[in-house]
UniProtKB/TrEMBL annotation:
<keyword id="KW-0645">Protease</keyword>
<keyword id="KW-0256">Endoplasmic reticulum</keyword>
<dbReference type="InterPro" id="IPR039731">
    <property type="entry name" value="Rce1"/>
</dbReference>
<feature type="transmembrane region" description="Helical">
    <location>
        <begin position="257"/>
        <end position="278"/>
    </location>
</feature>
<dbReference type="GO" id="GO:0071586">
    <property type="term" value="P:CAAX-box protein processing"/>
</dbReference>
<feature type="transmembrane region" description="Helical">
    <location>
        <begin position="71"/>
        <end position="92"/>
    </location>
</feature>
<keyword id="KW-0472">Membrane</keyword>
<keyword id="KW-0812">Transmembrane</keyword>
<dbReference type="GO" id="GO:0005789">
    <property type="term" value="C:endoplasmic reticulum membrane"/>
</dbReference>
<comment type="similarity">
    <text>Belongs to the peptidase U48 family.</text>
</comment>
<feature type="domain" description="CAAX prenyl protease 2/Lysostaphin resistance protein A-like">
    <location>
        <begin position="167"/>
        <end position="270"/>
    </location>
</feature>
<protein>
    <recommendedName>
        <fullName>CAAX prenyl protease 2</fullName>
        <ecNumber>3.4.26.1</ecNumber>
    </recommendedName>
</protein>
<dbReference type="Pfam" id="PF02517">
    <property type="entry name" value="Rce1-like"/>
</dbReference>
<keyword id="KW-1133">Transmembrane helix</keyword>
<keyword id="KW-0378">Hydrolase</keyword>
<dbReference type="InterPro" id="IPR003675">
    <property type="entry name" value="Rce1/LyrA-like_dom"/>
</dbReference>
<dbReference type="GO" id="GO:0004222">
    <property type="term" value="F:metalloendopeptidase activity"/>
</dbReference>
């Protein structure tokens, strides 16, 4: 029996998925998808995005963003904002009256059930998508596989990485904080308004727009013409929005934060596929075949490797009060 029925003995269950924990208590929102609920969600997400980006600029510095001193200061401010971001979700729940019936941390993807497949399967799926770039890198790398494994298991290599501020930013801090803020905190606020499917494509818009702040620094340090800077920003918005939709899909399907964080870190390491270099590669045919093979396998494995059955009960799916969520949560 649903929590809605428990809250109102003898009354009909609220419409929505079986065993839904969505309870429209007294608050701003009279029901799912109401204008008040949607405005509350959009304003909360916008405020959270502004707080995250704004935290990068609280420090008065004339140094570029890759300077170690700038990176360390930004670590401090962005970690504070990210640590406080669950409060936005808590405040949103109190204002709207939505009571999921589960703890806030579980709703944000911090749980143990199904954590092993949630750690491995999304990362493996992402590596399949990047099969072409990985083969291309292996062909161009001067090391063989044995040397690569020796380096990977060498503590000195990891000590060197951890001492590199840019590596820490790109592989640890940015993936963790961005996935926490732009996925784990925003999706629970958007889903009761939009439903599961539309939330996957709405959430990345905040993530993509948030990356426009790079334009400020590029103009400030004159890192190209105005036209090239804005063209680059538009391109970055496009692929970050697509990537954001993918990690939002992973977050909803697994109910874990760890998968999106690892996928984000991996993609930051690999970077955007060097398609032009692939077409000019000495072994172009082989590289192109693996590019195509990776995309085909990714599309075939996308649903099987993110099957919610691997990860137990998906907490965030309980927030959807519409039947449109079945295709995502099953």
């Amino acid at each position: 029996m649903s929590a809605a029925a428990d809250a109102a003995p003898g009354g009909p269950e609220a419409p929505g998925p079986v065993n839904s924990l969505w309870v429209p208590a007294a608050g701003l929102a009279p029901g799912p998808g109401s204008p008040a609920l949607c405005w509350a969600a959009l304003l909360a997400c916008l405020s959270l995005a502004c707080a995250y980006v704004g935290s990068l600029y609280v420090w008065n510095s004339h140094l570029p963003r890759d300077h170690p001193a700038v990176i360390k200061r930004r670590f401090t401010s962005v970690l504070i904002v990210s640590g406080l971001s669950p409060l936005f979700v808590w405040l949103w729940k109190e204002l709207t009256g939505i009571k999921p019936g589960i703890s806030l941390l579980v709703l944000l993807g911090f749980r143990l059930e199904g954590i092993v497949p949630a750690t491995l399967l999304p990362l493996l799926l992402t590596m399949v998508l990047f099969l072409g770039p990985l083969i291309q890198l292996s062909m161009d790398c001067p090391w063989d596989w044995v040397d690569g494994l020796k380096v990977m298991f060498d503590p000195r290599f990891w000590a060197l990485c951890l001492s590199d501020m840019r590596w820490l930013r790109n592989q640890v801090i940015a993936p963790l904080t961005e996935e926490l803020v732009f996925r784990a905190c925003m999706l629970p606020m958007l889903i009761p308004c939009t439903g599961l499917g539309p939330a996957i494509f709405t959430c990345p818009l905040f993530f993509g727009v948030a990356h426009f702040h790079h334009v400020i620094e590029q103009l400030r340090f004159r890192q190209g013409s105005v036209a090239s800077i804005f063209l680059s920003a538009a391109f970055q918005f496009s692929y970050t929005a697509v990537f954001g939709a993918y990690t939002a899909f992973i977050f909803i399907r697994t109910g874990h934060l760890i998968g999106p964080v690892l996928c984000h870190s991996f993609c930051n390491y690999i970077g955007f596929p060097a398609i032009c270099a692939a077409l000019e590669h000495p072994q172009r045919l082989t590289v192109v075949i693996f590019y195509v093979l990776g995309m085909v396998l990714f599309l075939l494995l996308l649903h099987p490797m993110t099957d919610p059955a691997f990860f137990g009960d998906i907490p965030i799916c309980s927030l959807s009060a519409t039947s449109s969520g079945f295709s995502v949560c099953s």
